[in-house]
Amino acid sequence: MENGKVRVLIVEDDPDFCFLIEKTLCAAGIEITGSVSDASGAVEAAVQTHPDVVLMDLCLADSGLDGIKAGKEIRLNTDAKLIILTSYEAPDIIRNACCRSFASGYVFKSQFELLPETVKSVAKGHIPQEYMIVSLILSELSVAERSVLELLMGKDLKLQSSPKTISNQKNNLLKKLGLSGAGELRHLFNGLI
User: Fold this and answer.
1) Domain residue extents for the chain
2) Largest alpha-carbon pair distance within the chain?
3) pLDDT score of 1
4) Which of these, 79, 90, 136, 188, is most buried using a 10 Å CB contact count?
């Protein structure tokens, strides 16, 4: 946050809805770093403008749920938090999107009035939705993989497993999460585990 103002990048392919988001957030004292309408432009804009929060439409144009992939890339390559903004309200879709993109939260387009406060809360720190999303992500890991994750996050644990077993568990958890290394784990889960 620069000068105490939350900085937001908007990723939305509906120009009218994008205008409404910009107007609403600006009225709430939130700075807009830019708006883009496609996934590839979103990653590039996030890297260039350094927003605190990225509002990501889940379904961009006719290319399916590519907001998930773009959101994950943004989370891995910037310090921005990610809020999924979607008209989809099916629990399975939301759970999958939030977990795969490592989102900090989500807002349904039908609950648009929650957007300014959600953006401000996410920018200030960890919100309950973020802890729930992390819990869902971790539920995919075995007990042993969770222990290795905690070890990689810097917790002082005395594991009874051999170094080879720990290495295998590390590789398994990275594969399950779709990550390439411990640095990505620490970046995504810092302060949450």
Assistant:
1) 7-125, 140-189
2) 57
3) 65
4) 188
**Terminal-to-terminal C-alpha distance of the chain:** 24
CATH for 7-125, among 3.40.1190.20, 3.60.150.10, 3.40.50.2300, 2.160.20.10? 3.40.50.2300
How many degrees, rounded to 5, is the angle at CA 25 between CA 24 and CA 27? 65
CB 51 within 8 A of CB 24: no
CA distance 143 to 155: 15
Buried b (16+ CB within 10 A) or exposed e, 89-122: eeeebbeebbbbbbbbbbbebeeeeebbebbbbb
Q: Which residues touch 29 (CB under 8 Å, ≥6 apart)?
A: 5, 6
pLDDT digits (tens, 9 = 90+) for 4-13: 799 999 999 8
Among 71, 84, 1, which residue's Cα sits nearest to residue 40? 71
b/e map 70-82, b = 16+ CB within 10 Å = bbbbbbbebebbb
- pTM score, two decimals? 0.91
3-state secondary structure of 4: coil
CA dihedral for 17, 19, 24, 29, sign (positive or negative): positive
